[in-house]
Amino acid sequence: MSAWGKSTWIAVAIAVAAVIAVAAVIASVWASLGDSGMSPAGWVAMTLGMLATLGLGGGLMALVFISNRRGYDEPGNWR
Q1: Model's pTM, two decimal places?
Q2: Could you say which DSSP state residue 76 is in?
Q3: pLDDT recorded at residue 62
Q4: Of 27, 59, 61, 64, which residue is 20 to 30 A from 53 by alpha carbon distance?
């Protein structure tokens, strides 16, 4: 017996189909670009952007875990 219901399987199937469709579009666009180059400044900018994005994501996830462990996420008693 599965713990997942029929609607969950449908949602998973739709999500997988969407990922496959996006991957197909990306592959098509990438193949149509041909031989395109990027300057060293472009590589530096892309690397710095990726590092900043990863740092921001990691920092926000750390805040979520800290907030949860210290009890800031518990519902308040508003009397």
Answers
A1: 0.52
A2: P
A3: 95
A4: 27
